[in-house]
Amino acid sequence: QNEEKWDFVLVSDIHEMGSEKEIKRKKFLDELSKKGFTIKKIEDTKLFYGVRAPQHIFRKYQCLLSNPDSRQQNSNAHDDVPVTTRIRIVHFILQNTVTSDLEKLRDLMKKKVFEAAFPLHEKEEVREFLKEKWARWRVMFKQQPIEKIRCYFGEKVALYFAWLGWYTYLLAFAALAGLVTVVAGTTVFSSSQVSKEICDANNTIMCPLCDQKCPFWVLSDTCTYAKVTHMIDNEATVVFAMFMAIWATVFLELWKRERATVVTDWDLYGWDEEEEELALELINNLQHEPRLYQHSYFRSTIVLVLVLLMIVVLIGIAHALVIYRVVAMALFTQSHLELLREHANTMAVMTGAVLHYITIVIMTKVRSHTGPWALLPFLEKPRTFSQRENNFIVKIFTFQFFTNFSSLIYIAFFLGRINGHPGHYVRIAGRWRLEECHPSGCITDLFIQMAIIMLLKQTISNIMEYLIPWISHHLRKQHKRPKKRSVMLGEEEEAEDLCKRQWLKNYELNEVNIFSLFNEFLEMVIQYSFTTIFVAAFPLAPLLALFNNIVEIHLDAIKMMRLYRRMVPRKANDIGIWLQVLEAIGILAVIGNGLVIAITSDFIPVQVYKYMYSPCSRENRTGMDCSTGYINNSLSVFRIQDFEPHTNVPDMLQEFDGDQIKEYRDYRNADDYTYTVQFWHIFAARLAFLILFEHVALCVKLIAAWYIPDVPQKVKNKFLGRKHTNLRKELRWVMSWKV
């Protein structure tokens, strides 16, 4: 016997006869019956209502929209409307059916009249194919069946996986370039003159790193740290940063071409979302009047104020992380453990990075459950679901961006630049000194922070992303599995039992919501930000992203096919506002990498020294490295008697005499501690480089965008041929009518 096909299943608790909830449920089901819906009731520990729409609804849809849906393969035997279209139409009608009490399904679910509403994962050929050929770890390196994904989950999900696959494929080139940069750093640049000078600086005594119990220290003690720094901070990094600016543009331009090809094959290139929504509204209610576009400057101002308030809160959290690092540094330097004292700075950076990751996780949870976001749709009053989703995306991305990057922005651009100097340190609450940069630069701190956050996000977060729904699904199965009947089943009861088993199996899966796909997109776009914006400080970011995405594609596939209820298919012909978000990130990447090289890196000070202050600038010395003497030149001297009164001045190191002059990293005069002329030369060079880098990179981006057309010629020619054929047919019809 053929299994009956049901478009949707509604689930409800068993309420008492005559109770308010039972009456409301009956009113809603009666409204569906009036529209010609077939409803089947199955009782178990819950009440299950199978819903099937009448055929005239789909005929109306096909008449209103000359739709190419019949080309899809996954259609029911008794009609040529695809399953994805059926589910989408039925979902729209269910969500917009109004009872006599003026309540919709959303209101009834809030009042616990219905517990759940979902389309079914059915034993279709497409589903079995996807489970075997896509949602398995063993097919990790095979091409994705995008057309099959479209036939089962709809165009929006298919476009997400097409975009993610394309992004992952092009990441391979960025990952290779990043790996070459790091290899070049470890081989060609590891033996740089700058790190060699730090390793040989056995007689250079540096100022204490804290006020109490911190000793003077010898510069050569940080030899390893200097070598790691110059492995990242070298000429190859500048080239790599420029390459990544071009890569980000080429990636988006090639994606536009890929998207144009894909949606043309689906006959959706010129699809109009607004027309589709109006058609569905009229199918549901012929008397429906379209909701007009609205805009209020007052409401927009309130939304802007709320968003700015949230950004201020996030910046406040970043300040809290800065305070943690400062206090942790002070505590570690006073620790009884020698290992902790010697590596106090590195430990403060690493624990700060872990704390930043924990903050990201907590704020993501807070964002998903509370915050002003729930109020914004009521304030903005978007006309369509698509508008509401776009508004939501922009605000939540802004929130997540500041959550992820505020601490990194501090390390990249403020750490070691606002801390003052010995004898006049900038302090938090008048007590704790702000951190200083290492004599070889601050870029290693940024490297460590990004490495830890990316590694934690790609290990712990991905494991939890899979484990939580897996555990939840198995707990639901154990809790909700019905007792098996021991009596013989009649044919009718057996058919009912087949439905019951299928519906229960779907009900045991985890719930999906309208923004489930949004969360997947957000995760990838934040990762794309890490891969591009500060990539100059962490060239391995694309490689880590590549490994993560290979896993992520199949992790998402397994979750959607095996752990979650079927997502309501949505029609789309692009990835929506995410494209504009990615383009904005591309511009931020140029600015961010330019600032990292100009401000965070030591690239500019070294170049200024080479051409203006080194021995090479005074006379031609072909056999000498022009950066010779750079470290000594970059240090300023400080008189011990000028320490602040409450500073506990440590004893002099045993092997050195009580010389009153010690050193610190800065460009200041020895007598009054004002900035030297060299400081202003470097400042001007940083500014000039930043302007030059950003203008060159943006020009190259514009040239790349012009050079690679958004739409391939074969797609343009296909539309040209179609227009020509349609006009010829119309002209023949007019001429035959005249005759």
UniProtKB/TrEMBL annotation:
It holds the Pfam family Anoct_dimer. The keyword Membrane applies. One of its GO terms (molecular function) is protein dimerization activity. GO terms for cellular component: plasma membrane. It is a multi-pass membrane protein. It is found in: Cell membrane; Membrane. Residues 83-146 form the Anoctamin dimerisation domain. Keywords: Cell membrane, Glycoprotein, Membrane, Transmembrane, Transmembrane helix. The chain crosses the membrane at residues 157-184, 236-255, 301-324, 344-363, 392-415, 525-551, 572-599, 683-708. Residues 149-718 form the Anoctamin transmembrane domain. Belongs to the anoctamin family. This is Anoctamin. The gene is Ano9.
